[in-house]
């Protein structure tokens, strides 16, 4: 029986960061699922983004099966596909539900408008007395100031409650990130102690069978899909100048997952052959992190735009 490979600092860091990446990927979609449920809407997230991501996960699964990768990798790829399908199904459900509600509300509004026009015609015919319009105008103007004061009070209350709400959200996200790191590190420690995880010698896979060309093509295709999936979301955010309905934690976990994934590869080895073999995945992770950074900038610039517009509109109401 060969001697066990000694655990070096590099191998330990590679194992820990890889395990943290795995924990981030497992819980990645949960924040957005919760956000959609709380909002009762999925209008904030781009379905094109999710569809391309699903294609990436499907090609990743097909490539893993074709290449005969370890069962844990295949199981994780299956989990990703199922999680994507659940999120897409939830989005389609809320979009369909809200569309039907809007159609019913629009039809009801049109019926009310027609009835209102009929009643206005009757009043104009029967109550067209001298000075009647002047009294109506005076009555309306009499209500303007109290309504404006009420809107101003609401705006002040919003400003008072806005900061604690932000602080709670930041605290919740911070705790979630700390837990992801803790779960990942603890998972690696347990796997190492039980022998489920062992250090891998650099270049240890070189003597095995080469990866089938088709599996490699599917792997590259999945990387391209992951890299391009966020572009529709970025465009949507920029076009609407809003990130309302998106979960910030969703993209934070994505950033953590990609950063620790790349770190796990580099901690294992920076030898030329190993580095070049993993270069496409490193580029994909780096590119995705850049796109996530763009979305973070959009959160900072547009995230609360709708709330600000709501306050502005309320203060200007008659």
TrEMBL record:
Transmembrane regions listed in the UniProt entry: 12-34, 46-67, 73-94, 169-191, 211-228, 248-267
Membrane topology: Multi-pass membrane protein
Keyword annotations from UniProtKB, A to Z: Membrane, Transmembrane, Transmembrane helix
PANTHER family: SEVEN TRANSMEMBRANE PROTEIN 1 (PTHR16201:SF44), SEVEN TRANSMEMBRANE PROTEIN 1-RELATED (PTHR16201)
Comp. bias intervals (Basic residues): 132-147
Family according to the record: Belongs to the laat-1 family.
Alphabetical GO biological process terms: vacuolar transmembrane transport
Major subcellular location class: membrane
Catalytically driven reaction(s): L-histidine(out) + L-arginine(in) = L-histidine(in) + L-arginine(out)
GO cellular component, one term: lytic vacuole membrane
Region of interest (Disordered), residue spans: 105-154
InterPro entries cross-referenced by the UniProt entry: LAAT-1, PQ-loop_rpt
Subcellular location: Membrane
GO molecular function, one term: basic amino acid transmembrane transporter activity
This protein's name: Vacuolar membrane PQ loop repeat protein
Database matches in Pfam families: PQ-loop
Gene3D superfamilies in the cross-refs: 1.20.1280.290
């Amino acid at each position: 029986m060969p001697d066990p490979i000694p655990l070096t600092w590099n191998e330990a860091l590679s194992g820990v960061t890889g395990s943290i990446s795995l924990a981030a990927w497992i819980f990645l979609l949960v924040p957005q699922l919760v956000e959609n449920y709380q909002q009762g809407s999925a209008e904030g997230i781009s379905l094109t983004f999710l569809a391309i991501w699903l294609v990436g996960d499907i090609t990743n699964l097909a490539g893993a099966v074709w290449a005969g990768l370890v069962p844990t990798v295949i199981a994780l790829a299956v989990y990703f596909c199922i999680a994507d399908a659940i999120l897409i199904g939830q989005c389609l459900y809320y979009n369909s539900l809200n569309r039907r509600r809007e159609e019913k509300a629009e039809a009801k509004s049109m019926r009310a408008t027609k009835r209102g026009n009929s009643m206005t015609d009757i009043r104009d015919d029967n109550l067209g007395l001298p000075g009647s319009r002047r009294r109506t105008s005076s009555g309306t103007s009499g209500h303007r100031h109290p309504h404006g004061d009420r809107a101003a009070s609401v705006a002040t209350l919003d400003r008072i409650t806005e900061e604690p709400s932000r602080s709670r959200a930041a605290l919740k996200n911070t705790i979630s990130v700390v837990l992801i790191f803790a779960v990942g590190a603890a998972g690696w420690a347990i796997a190492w102690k039980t022998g489920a995880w062992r250090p891998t010698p650099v270049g240890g896979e070189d003597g095995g069978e080469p990866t089938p060309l088709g599996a490699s093509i599917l792997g590259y295709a999945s990387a391209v899909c992951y890299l391009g999936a966020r572009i529709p979301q970025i465009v949507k955010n920029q076009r609407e100048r809003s990130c309302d309905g998106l979960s910030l934690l969703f993209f934070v976990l994505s950033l953590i997952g990609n950063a620790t994934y790349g770190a796990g590869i580099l901690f294992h080895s920076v030898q030329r052959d190993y580095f070049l073999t993993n270069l496409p995945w490193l580029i994909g992770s780096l590119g995705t992190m850049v796109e996530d950074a763009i979305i973070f900038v959009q959160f900072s610039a547009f995230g609360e735009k709708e709330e600000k517009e709501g306050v502005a509109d309320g203060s200007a109401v008659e």
